[in-house]
Amino acid sequence: MDFLLLLISTGLVTGAAYGLVAMGFAIIYKSTGVVNFAQGEIVMLVAYIGFSVANTFHLSFFPLLIVMIPISMLLGLALERIFIRPMLGEPIFAIVMVTVGLAVILRGVTIMIWGSEPYNFDAGISTTVVKVGGIPFYPAQLYLIAALAVVTLLAWLFLRFTRMGISMRAVAANETAALLVGVSVSRIHAMAWMLSSAIAAVAGLLIAANFKLAPDLWFQGLKSFPAVILGGLDSVVGAALGGIIIGLIENLSQGYIGQGMREISGFIVIIVVLMVRPYGLFGNREIERI
Amino acid sequence: MKRLAMTLAAFLASTAAYAADPGVTDTEIRIGDVNIMTGPAAFVGKGFSLGSKIAAGLINSKGGVNGRKITVITEDDGYIPARSFQALTKLIEVDEIFALNGTSGTANVMAMMPLIEENNIPTVVSQAPAAIVYNPVRPSVFTFGASYSDAFYAQLKYIHEKNPSKDAVFGIIRQDDDFGKEVEAGYDRAVKEFGVKDGIRLRFKKGTTNFSAEAAQMKEAGVTVLANGGIFAGAGNILGEARKLDLQLQPAEVWSEGIPASAKLLAPAGYDFMVADYVSLTGPANDKFMEMAKQFVTADELKDVSRYTYASFIGLTSLAAAMEKCGQDLTRECTIDNLRKLKDFDTLGLSAPVSFDNPEQHSGTAVGVYQYNIKDGKFEERAGFQQY
Question: What is the pTM of this model?
Answer without folding.
Answer: 0.86
